[in-house]
Structures are given as structure tokens and as C-alpha cells.
Design goal:
The chain has 464 residues and is an alpha+beta fold. Helix content is 39%, strand content 15%. The mean pLDDT is 88. The strands form three sheets. Strands 9-4-6-5-10 form a five-stranded antiparallel sheet, sandwiched between helices. It is built from 13 helices and eleven strands.
């Protein structure tokens, strides 16, 4: 695993640590632990022991202790959703989000959502922020207002044409209140639906229900916008069909009307004027089609898109993924000019709006909401998906140890006694380099498997 080609470029300290780890007698077991975490960047280190006991006889069926593990510790995945912090755990989080969104579109009885939900009216809506000043962009085939045809990865995209006149205060206040704008949108949407159906709000609730699944994404200019799956259900949720009046056109019209009604008033404070925050005019609402029906936006595409952005945050704009104590730190961290100005605006506005905690969320450019949320009845939950994964691994472990499965042998109950203690987190420099290589190997294997599956799908399709 470690040869001259792969270790080229390492500093002396890291190289020495790589050789130390690779030469240790328990290196194979260390690798096994790291592979089980998916190559986690910042694993949690635990010390402790477990015993599986037959309560009827007191016989110890299995025992485990970290005393015999590398370094006397067990390493488990950190579980961080941010790709900038831990690509391995973010991949798992994205996969869970994908299945959560997909279950609400296709249905999945195993996850508590019936297949019939696929016939319910549903749309993919994008709600954006208003303009805070002109920025460099790529308006179709036309040049930017600066006169340049920017490339797709041009660093100036999203930055103001005139930074001196850009309303940085309004931009971060809008981000800070974005979750409030979404909450009011869902309230007005239900009202607009009832009005269009010719019903009272109570009657509309008794006949139908709305379900949401959304994700927040940062635009290049640093403004948050929301992508949301919005679905019509019957009165008892996805298990019941929506009423005849709950059409796709009604839902689409109600979304446009509700978004136009939303407003959040921010009072004047210090040198800041009173503001009324609204959604931007670029509201996109498109129906979600089924697989292979020729629609532009399919269930697969929507689930993949939402999962992709569930692991990203403000760092995609050039800021950092941790809190910033003061303006001087921004220079040391090398934050580019535009996100730096947004962070500075948060720090300047914090004393004027202390309840909004702008200083705490300055690294998020003011946004303080959850990135991925859903209504209760949309589909399964992330907790349920994680529990299913844990149950599967526990079943594998029982089978490997020859222990009875409780579902197969209800009378053969076992008692597990465990004690765990936190012993730290992270890797040494050499371990970090080795773990990164393990993660890349896992990613390459996944990609190869995905390509093989796609090739098989195309071959089967051609044969038909």
C-alpha cells in the first residue's frame, strides 16, 4: 500500500508516521476498522467492552474488548453530513437523503410509504432570494453585464459588479430570515389551496394534506435558496388518495400565489433602515414525472439533486465551515473578498439584532436553518434509515458469531452488557493520509460497480 510513488510529496513527519502505522503488527486490523467507517476523516475513538449473556444460564456467549484493538481503541464513523468535513460520512448522509426523497416520490412499503403515492400530484419548486445588487453571471448566450462571456468555473461568477453599492446587510439578513420565509410560505400555500378549491381552510385540511421535502442550497452570490418537493396527499397522508380537486395545476398556481404573499418585516436598528424581506421573482415550479415517461424532471433526478446538496453548505461560496471569531481571522483564513464582506456584515449587524445570532452564524453567511427538512408524513425518516442499517449490521454480527436471531428464536433471548467511554477523535498525520487512500479506493470501487450496473442496464434494454 505504501510505495515510493504513493508517498511522494509527503513531509517528513507525515511520512515517518505512515511508516510507523504500516509497520505495526496490528496494521491489518487498523485498516479493517477504517474500512468499516468508509475511510472517515475524523473517526470517534472509543474504549470499552461488551458481553452477550444467556440470561437463563448466565453463560457468556460472546465478549469483546477494545484492549486488543489497535491502540486499545475502536474507531467509528463521525457521522458529519458536510462533505467539506468528512467526504465518507457525507456520502452516507447523501445516500440516506436520496432514499428518503425517493421513497416520497416512488413509494416504498418497506419504508412506510405506499407505492400509490406515485400517482399523487407533486412538483419540484425552487424559491430564490431577491436581488441585492447586480452580479457577474452567465445569461444564456449573451455576455455578462460587464461585457465578458464568463466560463462555467470563472471565480468572479456571483460576485458583485460594484461591491461598494451591493447591499451586503440585506443579503445576510435575508439569509438569516430564510427559514421564516419558508414557514410563512407553507402557511399561505395551504390558504391559497383552500381558496382555489372553494373550501374553508378547515374543510381543505379534512380532505387533503400537503407533504414537503426540501433542501437549502447556496447560490454563488452567497444567497440561500430552497429546492422543495411538494406533494398532494389525501386526508390521512400518503396512504390515501388526494381529492379530485387537488390537481397539479391548482398546486402550481397556489405555490406562485403563496410565494408572492410572503413578507417578513425587519425593524430599523442603528444605521439600518426597516426592511421587508420577500422571495425573489425567479420562482420555478415544475411537475415531477415518472421514470421513462419522457418528462424533463424525473423522480430519480429530483432525489439525486436533493441528496447532492444535502451535504453542502456555505463553504461552496468560498467561506469556511466553522465559526469565525473576528474579522482579522478572515484574512488569516484567506476568505475571498465577496464572502468576506458577507461575514463582516454579519459581525457588524450582530449588536443591532442580537436575537438573530448573526455572529454565531457568520460563517454560514447568516443562515441558521436546517439544510434538509421534511414534513412528518412525507416519507420515512433519517433515524429510521440509520436504525435499519444498524439492525442489518447487528444481524450480520450475530450470524458471524453464531448467536440466535430474536425473530427466529423468540424464546432464545440474550442480554448485552456494554460499557463505552469516549477516548478522542481524529487521526495522526500518517493515519489521516492512509485513511484518505482507503476512502479513495472505496470510492473507485463504488464508481466501477455503478458503471458496471449501468452497462448491464443498457445491455438488457438493447436486448429487449
Amino acid at each position: 500500500m505504501t510505495n515510493a510513488a504513493t508517498v511522494a510529496g509527503l513531509d517528513a513527519t507525515t511520512l515517518a508516521d505512515v511508516l510507523r502505522v504500516a509497520a505495526s503488527g496490528d496494521f491489518d486490523r487498523w485498516q479493517e476498522q477504517i474500512r468499516r467507517t468508509g475511510g472517515c476523516t475524523d473517526p470517534i475513538r472509543l474504549i470499552g467492552a461488551t458481553k452477550t449473556i444467556d440470561p437463563a444460564t448466565g453463560t457468556v456467549l460472546h465478549s469483546y474488548s477494545t484492549d486488543h484493538e489497535p491502540g486499545g481503541m475502536l474507531r467509528v464513523a463521525c457521522g458529519n453530513r458536510r462533505a467539506s468535513r468528512c467526504p465518507a460520512c457525507a456520502w452516507t448522509y447523501a445516500g440516506d437523503t436520496y432514499h428518503l426523497i425517493r421513497a416520497g416520490l416512488l413509494g416504498d412499503p418497506a419504508k412506510g410509504t405506499p407505492d400509490t403515492v406515485r400517482d399523487h400530484p407533486r412538483v419540484f419548486a425552487t424559491l430564490t432570494a431577491p436581488s441585492f445588487g447586480p452580479v457577474h453571471n452567465r445569461p444564456g448566450n449573451r455576455p455578462c453585464r460587464c461585457g465578458t462571456h464568463h466560463s462555467q468555473d470563472a471565480p468572479e461568477l456571483g460576485t458583485p459588479l460594484e461591491p461598494a453599492t451591493y447591499d451586503y446587510a440585506a443579503a445576510v439578513l435575508w439569509n438569516n430570515h430564510a427559514s421564516d420565509l419558508w414557514r410563512y410560505f407553507t402557511i399561505y400555500l395551504r390558504r391559497e389551496i383552500a381558496r382555489r378549491a372553494g373550501l374553508t381552510q378547515k374543510a381543505a385540511r379534512e380532505e387533503s394534506r400537503l407533504s414537503f421535502g426540501k433542501v437549502a442550497e447556496y447560490q454563488k452570490r452567497g444567497a440561500v435558496h430552497f429546492h422543495a418537493v411538494i406533494r398532494f396527499d389525501g386526508p390521512d397522508g400518503p396512504d390515501t388518495p388526494p381529492p379530485a380537486w387537488a390537481t397539479l395545476d391548482l398546486l402550481r398556481d397556489a405555490i406562485h400565489a403563496a410565494a408572492a404573499r410572503v413578507r417578513v418585516d425587519v425593524p430599523a436598528a442603528g444605521d439600518q433602515p426597516a426592511r421587508t424581506l420577500r422571495w425573489g421573482t425567479q420562482l420555478d415550479v415544475q411537475p415531477i414525472g415518472a421514470f421513462n415517461h419522457g418528462e424533463e424532471i424525473t423522480e430519480q433526478a429530483v432525489a439525486s439533486y436533493v441528496a447532492k446538496y444535502a451535504t453542502k453548505a456555505a463553504e461552496t461560496t468560498g467561506t469556511v465551515d466553522h465559526r469565525v471569531g473576528n474579522k482579522e481571522a478572515l484574512v488569516l483564513l484567506g476568505v475571498p473578498d465577496h464572502p468576506r464582506r458577507l461575514i463582516e456584515a454579519c459581525l457588524d449587524l450582530h449588536p443591532l439584532y442580537p436575537g438573530r445570532k448573526l455572529r454565531d452564524w457568520a460563517h454560514m453567511l447568516g443562515f441558521r436553518g436546517h439544510f434538509s427538512t421534511k414534513s412528518r408524513s412525507y416519507s420515512t425518516t433519517l433515524s429510521a434509515l440509520r436504525q435499519a442499517r444498524a439492525d442489518y449490521r447487528a444481524a450480520q454480527q450475530r450470524e458471524a458469531l453464531g448467536l440466535p436471531h430474536p425473530d427466529d428464536h423468540p424464546e432464545a433471548t440474550t442480554l448485552v452488557v456494554a460499557h463505552w467511554a469516549y477516548a478522542g477523535h481524529g487521526h495522526t498525520p500518517g493515519e489521516s493520509w492512509l485513511a484518505a487512500n482507503i476512502r479513495r479506493d472505496i470510492e473507485q470501487n463504488r464508481e466501477a460497480a455503478r458503471e458496471a450496473l449501468a452497462d448491464q442496464f443498457h445491455m438488457e434494454g438493447a436486448a429487449e
